[in-house]
Design goal:
There is one protein chain. This protein has 63 residues and is mainly alpha-helical. The chain has one domain. The chain contains 3 helices and no strands. The protein is extended. It is found in: Endoplasmic reticulum; Golgi apparatus. GO terms for molecular function: identical protein binding; long-chain fatty acyl-CoA binding.
Amino acid sequence: LPAARPHKLILLLIFSLSDRPGMLDFKGKAKWDAWNALKGMSKEDAMKAYVAKVEELKGKYGI
């Protein structure tokens, strides 16, 4: 996370602690559902998933 965006991280963390957004907040519900689907994932599995996603994106975008 770029140093210029620490507030974005804080907002994301607070968001993840909140209740599921209302039915008309489609974007908010999608974010919350994605976060909630990973609830209970171990730290090691989360790190592996992160690295795998980065590698996938590197291949896709040629970085």
